[in-house]
Amino acid sequence: MTYRLVGGLVLVSAASLLFEIALTRVYAIAQGHHFAFVAIAMALLGIGAAGTLTATSARVARATPQAAIGWAGALFALTALGAYVTADRIPLDTYRIGADASQLAWLALFFIVAAVPFTCAGVAVVAALRHSPSGAGTTYGASLAGSAAGAALAVPLLGLFGSAATILLAAALAMAAPLIAAPRLPAIGASLLAIALFGTAFVIAPAGPRVSVHSQLAQALQRPDAHRLDTKLSSNSRVDILQNAGFRTATGLSLNYQGSVPRPQIGVTVDGGNAAALDVSPTEALDHVPLAHAVTLRPVASALLLDSIGAFDAAVLLRAGIYEIDLVQPDAALRNAWQSAGRDTVLNDHRVRILDQGVRSALRSATGYDLVVWPLRESFQGVAAGTFGLKETYALTSDALADGWRALAPTGRLVVIRWLQATPSESVRMWASLLAAIRQSGITDPAPHILAWRSLEVVTMVASPTPFTPGERQALANNLHRDGFDWVFHANLDESDSNRFNRLPDTGLYQAFRAVVRGESTPPTWTPVTDDRPYFFHYFDWIQWREVLSTTGRTWQPFGGAGFLVLVPLAAAATGAAVLTMIAPLMGQRRRGATRVGVRRLAFVAAAGVAFTATQIALLQRLILVLDAPTVAFATGIAAMLAWAGLGSLTSRWWRPHPRTAALSAAMSVFLMGGLLLAAPLALGAPLAVRLAAAVLAASPSLALGTVMPAAVRALANDRSAISWAWAVNGTASVAAAFVATILIVSIGFAWTLLGAALAYAVAAPIWRARDPPPTSPP
Predict the structure, then answer these.
(1) CB under 8 Å to 16, separation ≥6 — which residues?
(2) Global pTM?
(3) Sign of the C-alpha dihedral computed for residues 131, 134, 136 and 141 taken in this order
(4) Which domains does the chain have, with CATH numbers?
């Protein structure tokens, strides 16, 4: 390949990954975080369909690499902008899918418009591969290097400009490809494309993606006097500052309190949800909330407050007389929102120090605190079938609590607050994780070290390395009685005292907490959450599938209440779409004798696609722990993995491994990556640069992964149309793997999913024949 072609391919690939990452942010805001992973699957679907297009379209097949890359860049720019504008205006409502069949059609259109730009980008790569199969290493290397660059650009661009403007910049990047790869592209066509591109800028850049009509932001703005004051952006979130939006304060306030409660006027939402008030005053009302009793249980000089969104928790701590409060907040958008709120918020009080760290890094480096508080960060949400369970929550695992335990002074306390639900779930899972952390410290009888009580809304859990004395328990009991709060657990609690004030239908919560303390057999939804499976809000169990299906379409939740189970039909639909767009057209070509490809070779490239995608998803999931920020982890992980794989592709042009050798090397490399990822959390607490270096090092075994497909393409050089088959089958398998790997990693964990990826590479190796005829294509 010439330098011009390499440059054009790099630009198209960079634009493709930049667009993909920006699209995950658009989907997270518009449809919820449970929908963001769809962007990855649609990217794989579109790229895989490019193989079919080059095989079935004579015009595309005959195009020179210069023309293919040039037009691919130009069309990617237009279709990417069109995909954003269209998807942002499609009336898709995932909450109505179970009750409104028309939403399925909108869902299909949503998928199609998202996949088309990636098809354009994929055509550029396939055309280059077909033109020179022997140079597959260079082609793959250029594509992967460009993709890595696009991923690396995503974090600063999203933070500076937001998702809509980042998509515009991705389109502009793709528009530069024709200027480099195909400078003879007709000037009139190029001018029209440029005019269309920059004209669209005035449509999409100022507005940004719409938010879901079901979000707290949309609901709050329906109040007659509510309005948006400002919007702050970061690579991880969008924070809207609202006035007169009816924000609540004093969560869990005692029903016995008869005094006044100031009504906050200013608050924020994060990605349209998790609403919290900013102008909370440390008034008398805060003496009668559950957190206040945990604070006053023993003297407190210093406190660590983890990832609070609003001012409520900090106000409670200040009201209790704590003068050294370290508030951990890694999100720059939230920190900027607090500053914009002015001196009206206690978050700008001189006694509150804001720490620009992730929760896990802060816990790993913390020591000697009298109080470590996990506030109630998330808004109340249903738990049926794990609808909201696809988001990693490393701050709520037993490993995080163990780090918090080590950060305490000898008489210090961990305080965790969770929502009270009709069926004990969220609070019991948190309790089990807390008990697991205490037992990790060597305490065999945790009962004297733990306390729990509840209001009508929330459950408060407290633990300390120093056992609570009878006098401390009695003083706390007097305060709880005053405010009408019920005990949930202490070492000598009688069941009749667990349901006195805020009456529940039964004492199931007390029984659940007691069973966890005693180590009795409990349901799977009560098991501790670990760093291997950090999905705190995932409550689905496969034995529930009949019950879930029977209620689908009858609840208010996304996808009609199908929840986690919706991944199965989504996986089937995406795989079916991949088969229809990739495999079916090629089957017609085969019947006409245009292509002859062995089943074993197709199985090889399918296994390679499954293995690479599963490895990628497992890597990204683990790096969220190390880097403490989902978007940063996604961009860094993708960039590092593709950069290493691209380097492997480039080096394979010299040592030219056989496909079997490449697959076996990849299998061993995935095992090595697993070991590096298990060790990577040792960098927690270190500066960001050190953790980024650890992430890049953990992805380094991807070097071998980048040799597998180039080796297969070189071996298929005798029949260049077979390259399109290989590309299409690899893409189809990758689409299916994106969903299957997500299901596996949530259900059985990171380690087993990565092991499955290694086995897929190992199984692929013997599938390919030991010897292949020499290629007849010119170099």
Answers:
(1) 43, 47, 76, 117, 118, 121, 147, 150, 170, 174
(2) 0.87
(3) negative
(4) 3-210+559-767 (1.20.1250.20), 266-375+398-528 (3.40.50.150)
User: What would the pLDDT profile of 280-336 be if each residue is shown by its tens digit?
Assistant: 888 899 999 999 999 999 999 999 999 999 999 999 999 999 989 999 999 999 999
Q: Assess whether pLDDT exceeds 90 at residue 377.
A: no
Taking a C-beta distance cutoff of 8 angstroms, is the pair 298, 472 a contact? yes
Dihedral sign (CA 125, 128, 130, 132): negative
Gyration radius of the chain's alpha carbons: 28
* CB-based contacts of 84, cutoff 8 Å, min separation 6: 23, 26, 164, 167, 204, 209
Q: Distance (Å, rounded) from C-alpha 258 to C-alpha 238?
A: 37
Please provide the average confidence, as pLDDT, over all residues in the chain. Answer: 84
Locate tokens 């037009």: which residue? Answer: 71
Torsion of Cα atoms, 692 then 693 then 696 then 699, to 10°: -110
The two structure tokens encoding residue 197: 């591109």
Output the CA torsion 338→342→345→348 (10° steps): 70
Closest CA to 733 of 559, 603, 540: 603
Question: How far is the C-alpha of 544 from the C-alpha of 525, rounded, in Å?
Answer: 12
Which neighbouring-strand residues pair with 267?
242, 277
Contact, 448 vs 467, CB < 8 A?
yes
Decide: 419 and 457 in contact? Cβ < 8 Å. yes
Cα distances (Å, whole numbers) of residue 342 to 329, 339, 347, 642? 17, 6, 9, 43
Best CA proximity match to 638, nearest among 88, 301, 154: 154
Taking alpha carbons only, the member of 34, 93, 740, 39 closest to residue 382 is 34
- Residue 1's pLDDT band, with cuts at 50, 70 and 90, is low
Q: Residue 93: how many CB atoms within 10 A of its CB?
A: 18
Q: Read off the DSSP letter of residue 631.
A: H
